[in-house]
Amino acid sequence: MYTTLVYFIFVSGVTSFSTTLNLSDFFADQSHNFINFLEERGNEMEDAFSSSYARAMKMKNSFDNYVEEQQNKISTEINSYIENVKDRGLQIANSFSYVPTQDAASALPVPDAALTVPARVTRLGYSCETHTVISQGYVLNLHRIPHSKGGGNISSKTVLLQHGLFASSADWILNGPDKALAYVLADAGYDVWMSNVRGNVYSAEHASLKRNTKSYWNFSWHDIALYDIPAIIDYIMKLKGEDTKITYIGHSMGTTILFAMLTLRPEYNRVLTAGYALAPVAFMSDIKSPIKALAPLASNVARMEMMYGSHEFLPKNSMFGKLVTSCNNEYVDNKLCRNAIFQICGDNEKQYNETLLPVFLAHFGAGTSWKTIVHYAQEIMAKGRFQFFDLGPWNNKRIYGTENPPEYDLSKITLPIKLFWAQNDLLSTEKDVKNLQERLPATTDVYLVPHPKFNHLDYLWAIDAPSLLNSEIITSLQNSFENFPNN
Known about the structure:
- About 45% of the residues lie in helices and about 10% in strands.
- It has helices at about 1-20, 25-85, 115-125, 180-185, 220-240, 255-265, 290-295, 300-305, 320-325, 335-345, 355-365, 370-380, 395-400, 430-440, 460, 465-485; strands spanning about 100, 130-135, 140-145, 155-160, 190-195, 245-250, 270-280, 415-420, 445-450.
- Helix 14 (about 430-440) links the parallel strand 8 (about 415-420) and strand 9.
- Helix 5 (about 220-240) crosses helix 6.
- It is elongated.
- It starts with a helix and ends with a helix.
- One of its GO terms (biological process) is lipid catabolic process.
């Protein structure tokens, strides 16, 4: 142990002495080694950075390629969608689209009930054109009788006829040349346009939505008033010129659309010459029809129907649709169908045209949405309010800003209005009509049809329509066009 310790001290001393002698060489070597060490570490760091940078750039390039691929994919899909939209109708949105209609069926021995509107019109010797207007993707087809049966120039005096619920442009021509309002107006020298609301048989197409989807049927008369009728009026004005004088005549829901449009789009108060409301429907708290008892059930029934994928109200292939169709069957007693109509709209044996019933029912149920039905049910229960669609308190607050849906502001209506009502109309009663009159301008005129049993549908098919209704409309039209400010 002692010997080992002495040896360690000796060796240490020798080493220390040797180191002292070569101190400068030692530091020179260590400095060189340190520099080499730093260079090696620097090279390693540079290699690591280069490798990380390369990986980052590779990731960036990969991401850029992915983004570019997705952009190209989306762009391709969008272009494909646009081309599809164009193919389905939007290419005509800004052009004048119409065809003089000569339906082949008009020359064949086809029953009147089976004829389309253009075929029926041309069969009777009148000219008929089909015009197309695009509104929110819905392809709306209008039927036009541009002049009288004898031909002649097209008048600047234009009338736009808007049908009611479950109906189509057929309403205005089914009663024949001497009684149906469209023919009477055409023969009196007016350019007659008959619109078809979105979703009915003549306006069934959409640029991108399929007819059997919820999105397609997500509308009520509010949307028609806000978008479709203004688009139709704009189209007519663009086609005929800005000095064109247009009078709007609506029946039932066609009047609801008019009142809503003039409040939502008040600029059209200055575009139209006048508005005629046949069987006006805005306030509905006093209706006498049995459908009043069904109103509280409408929302729940609609919800159940839509859960099972039925968004159209009573399509032709539904049980009710088949029941209506059965009224055309020779083995079914038409009195059953007649009585059902009388119960809902008001009875009037004297003005009832039995031979017209099968033709009328063949065109009835032209197509509407559950939302439209629910909106009317809400009107019935609204206790004297003419209001927007009730979405429920939470959604009302979110969409409208209030828990209750807002009312249509009828004070915005300045257009000369004439209300036509009847004592036996169960859907447009005296109390509701007078409530409406009080909210409209003081210049609003009111005409009581001079027949105590005149009902909601007699405006369309009454036997004595010429003397009870049409003559008053023609006289009023002449006065409104003569007094229009542009004259």
